[in-house]
Specification:
247 residues, alpha/beta, Nucleotidyltransferase, domain 5, 2 domains, 6-stranded mixed sheet, 6 strands, globular
Length: 247
């Protein structure tokens, strides 16, 4: 903030009248955001503004999750790892940390819902929390096979008197086992079409992890990291539509 005039203008800081807030002040402000769930409120408010401008539709939802690593070392004062984080196996590799589950608008690729869990929580268990209640179609990868059966999902849909068309990817082996012919070709083409739609869910992950460089947790505990993730995905929405928002 001392080095960047553009950043000081953005924050409304005039060094001729006031100094840059110290680390304690900034930490206190962050704790205020966490205590009152204000980062979630910011995501809701930003999305409401995008809906008013016609940039965020709500008819289709893409659901997915990504792993975010946490420090696994025990070389700290308490000599323990973060108790809110857990390990999980993906492919042939083990990961320690948490998961960011998101619900993304199909047409715009913007995030409308964020849920944070430890890494060992199954993706499918958070599906009901990622549905906003207005979508008519939901797309998901093979990790969500059987998503229409859990009671919490059925209750969420029933509460909104809603009927949803599920577009869940089939497991690759089930398609490969089909006999060669028109049925297999048709199944492969349909899976490719579903994959092209689901690809939009990767854009917010790319922005948060590669552009914002948030590949590893900075804080301890799920509550603090959940607050940060809600803010990051709110900012990723603004980043994705920055051209449309410019005067």
């Amino acid at each position: 903030m001392y080095d960047s005039h553009a950043l000081r203008n953005f924050l409304g800081i005039d060094l001729g009248r006031t100094g840059v807030p110290d680390a304690t002040t900034l930490m206190g402000f962050r704790h205020l955001l966490e205590a009152h769930d204000l980062t979630k409120a910011m995501l809701v408010e930003i999305n409401a503004m995008l809906i008013e401008r016609g940039l965020l539709m709500t008819q289709g939802t893409l659901v997915d999750a990504t792993l975010i690593a946490a420090p696994s070392s025990t070389k700290n004062k308490a000599r323990v790892r973060d108790p809110d984080m857990h390990q999980t196996k993906k492919g042939n590799q083990w990961y320690f940390g948490m998961k960011a589950h998101i619900g993304v608008d199909k047409d715009s690729g913007l995030v409308h819902t964020v849920k944070t869990t430890s890494a060992n929580v199954r993706d499918i268990s958070q599906t009901a929390a990622l549905l906003h209640g207005q979508q008519s179609d939901v797309w998901a990868d093979a990790g969500y096979v059987g998503v229409d059966k859990p009671e919490d999902v059925q209750e969420a849909l029933a509460a909104n008197e809603q009927t949803v068309q599920w577009h869940v990817a089939k497991r690759r082996k089930s398609v490969e086992k089909l006999q060669d012919g028109w049925q297999k070709s048709l199944a492969q083409a349909y899976e490719k079409l579903k994959a092209q739609v689901r690809a939009y869910v990767e854009h917010p992950f790319h922005i948060v992890k590669n552009i914002f460089k948030h590949k590893k947790t900075r804080y301890k505990g799920l509550a603090k990291n959940d607050a940060q993730l809600n803010m990051l995905f709110a900012l990723s929405n603004l980043y994705m539509v920055r051209a449309e928002l410019r005067p």
